[in-house]
Amino acid sequence: MKPNTVFWLVSTAALLSAAAVPAQQVASNQPASANDSTPAAASTGKSTAGSASTMRTIKTQYFRPTDKRGIDMFETPKVAGAPFTGFNLDFGGAFTQQFQALRDRNTAAPRFVDTVNVNQLMPIGTGFNNSTANLYLNAQLAPGIRVALTSYLSSRHHNETWVKDGYLLVDESPIHSELLDNLMQFVTIRVGQFEVNYGDAHFRRSDNGNALYNPFVGNLILDALTTEIGGEVYLRASDFMVMGSITNGESHGLVTQPSSKSPAFIGKLGFDRQVNPDLRVRLTGSVFSQQRSSNQTLYAGDRAGSRFYFVMENTNATESGNFTSGLINPGFGSKLTSFMVNPFVKYRGLELFGVAEHAAGRTTAETSNRTWNQYDGDVVYRFLADEKLFVGGRYNVAKGDLLGIASPVKVDRSELSGGWFVTGNVMLKGEYVSQWYHNFPVTDIRNGGRFNGFMMEGVVAF
């Protein structure tokens, strides 16, 4: 590693260490209050004796905290977690700064367009990427009814502020009767423009300025993340969950070209049980289906951008124009049916998470479907008091057909990571990543492609 790389790594660690405040130490399997630093705090609403927390009091009901308490939470909890004391407006935020030390290479043949070799890689060095930030707003309107709004204050794709999503979440009936009150003990309704609940991987990924839930730096190679307009209905009883959703199937609202559009249907079945104080088991299966769209974006909906800046991009690349570096978009812009299965097991500090995904679709120019398959396995071990430290490993592989390439291509990635929660709101993590590109034609810039090296992230979320 070059001397300047070592200098910046040490400097970043020292900066976060200087800001550290001693965090409350609570056994990881004990229920906690909304001030506490365990995920159980937000999901149980129970309290235990302890010292003052470094994290804010949660005043929003049925809420997944944006700090450490939100780790290993998936859907918003079906427990209020906080009393209703009248209208409440709550703000939160998240900020991520990256340090990148990656190198890439390829074996693609020179291909010139207007005297420019479009297969020549952009020279990349070692240094900081631009920081990203999120702003969260939650308005508690009535018992069990709130509005949520997420804004990106900056992102790789947009330097300006723009709204990611906004929706109404209903967990209690505004009309009180014995029938409705009993029914809403099991039902959750979400309407608006929201991050569609396809699969479980989107709950563990980095979302622009908030990288605290993700034990790694990168998101999946096929990154299923999009926001669409519609509604979701959840039925949760005991350890079981059923979800059905209908959306407009696109990341924006548009009433023109009606013959090229159809609704998207999303379904999810899940089982999540805390078997004993040490063992939790979760298994879900999801489906996403849309027959017609003018711009389907399930695998192209992350407008914030990839964490690996400028890898495998040519010399004309720009930060915002080539914001998906290192990812694969299958290009299913018109028709798509996709399935994802996600197992999750947590035994004490050991976490196992998996992805098995199959997607088939096409563009308007195609007459038959292409397919992609993706597999991912994550192993994370969290240790010391309150799981302040963690180490992890991931292997992710995706294989399928791209438009214009005759044979299937394959991309695989390995990540080894480690991290430290300085407090429940502040995290420092780093990883070594290596990604390979297989079977791309010699005329494609990704032919013989590989990037590898070190990444570090400092995250503040509250």
Structure at a glance:
This protein has 462 residues and is mostly beta strands. The protein is 6% helix and 43% strand.
| Total DSSP helices | 3
Order of helices and strands: HHEEEEEEEHEEEEEEEEEEEE
Which structural class do you get from the secondary structure elements?
mainly beta
Q: Helix coverage percent of residues?
A: under 10%
Fraction in beta strands: 35-45%
Could you name the CATH topology?
A: Porin
Any idea what the CATH architecture is?
Beta Barrel
Describe the overall structure.
The structure is a single chain. The protein is mainly beta and 462 residues long. It has a single domain (3-461), classed as Porin, CATH 2.40.160. Helices cover 6% and strands 43% of the residues. It contains three helices and 19 strands. The protein has helices at 3-18, 40-44, 178-183; strands spanning 88-105, 112-113, 116-117, 126-128, 132-142, 145-154, 162-170, 187-195, 227-237, 240-247, 264-276, 279-290, 335-347, 350-362, 370-383, 389-400, 409-421, 426-438, 450-461. Strands 1-5-6-7-8-9-10-11-12-13-14-15-16-17-18-19 form a 16-stranded antiparallel beta barrel. Mean pLDDT is 90; it is low at 1-51.
Which key features would you list for this structure?
single chain; 462 residues; mainly beta; Porin; 16-stranded antiparallel beta barrel; two-stranded antiparallel ribbon; 3 helices; 19 strands; globular; disordered N terminus
